[in-house]
Design brief:
The chain is an all-alpha fold. The chain is built from 9 helices and no strands. 73% of the residues lie in helices and 0% in strands. α1 (3-26) runs antiparallel to α2, α1 (3-26) packs parallel to α4 (79-103) and α5 (125-146) packs antiparallel against α6. The longest helix is centred in the middle third of the chain and has 25 residues, at 79-103. It is globular, with a radius of gyration of 16 Å.
């Protein structure tokens, strides 16, 4: 395993999770006016585009355990390399949450994902499971299609960043948007309590969605 690839995954996931948390923690109450859901969605989309362009070539730019496992299901990544990638991603998400904890003024929930009282619209467990599975499957189809060998050069990061922006616009009110178990892990560790007990949903649903999306794409592309 290339240590540089693991460091790139740590940095990429650090920045991806930071893009969500920083915007979610501070933009809603900014004196100049709340950036709100649109601000959070743009923050993560722009950050993923930038990091994929900057360091994506080093590790493949997964920054997400569900993406890593989806790429395994699609036959584009070795299963044996998945575990160290996932460890690096989870450490990156925890590390950036620790940075924001040190900065302070974070909400008690740390923008954790959740259903019921942790959902903006008090969405049910079933609703959250459905949206996380469906949107992660959609995300994997875009990733696999935009990074295929015949895709226009350099188009992948833009397509992936825009898709992640759209996903957040659709699902922040429902689940606070995960589609990424590492992004869910960091805030849950610091929030504890209900956020931590609901974490399993945001591990299971994105991974299931990623595998479904990968299998759908493999069938479409045969």
């Amino acid at each position: 395993m290339n240590i540089k690839a693991l460091v790139a995954e740590f940095i990429g996931t650090f920045m991806l999770t930071g893009a969500v948390l920083g915007a979610a923690f501070y933009s809603f109450g900014a004196p100049a006016g709340a950036a709100g859901i649109i601000g959070v969605a743009l923050s993560i989309g722009i950050t993923v585009f930038a990091t994929a362009r900057a360091i994506g070539h080093i590790s493949g730019g997964h920054y997400n355990p569900a993406v890593t496992l989806g790429l395994v299901a699609a036959g584009r990544f070795q299963l044996g390399d998945a575990v160290p990638y996932i460890v690096a991603q989870c450490l990156g998400a925890i590390a950036v949450t620790a940075v924001f904890a040190a900065i302070g003024n974070a909400p008690a929930t740390y923008a954790a994902n959740g259903y019921g009282s942790l959902s903006m619209i008090n969405a049910s467990l079933t609703s959250v499971l459905i949206i996380e599975v469906v949107l992660t499957a959609f995300f994997l189809i875009v990733i696999l299609g935009s990074t295929r060998a015949s895709a226009p050069a350099g188009s992948g990061p833009l397509a992936i960043g825009l898709t992640l922006t759209a996903i957040h616009l659709m699902s922040i009110p429902v689940s606070n948007t995960s589609v990424n178990p590492a992004r869910s892990l960091g805030p849950a560790v610091f929030a504890g309590g209900e956020a931590l007990t609901q974490l399993w949903v945001f591990i299971l649903a994105p991974i299931a969605g990623a595998v479904v999306g990968a299998l759908i794409y493999r069938w479409l592309d045969e």
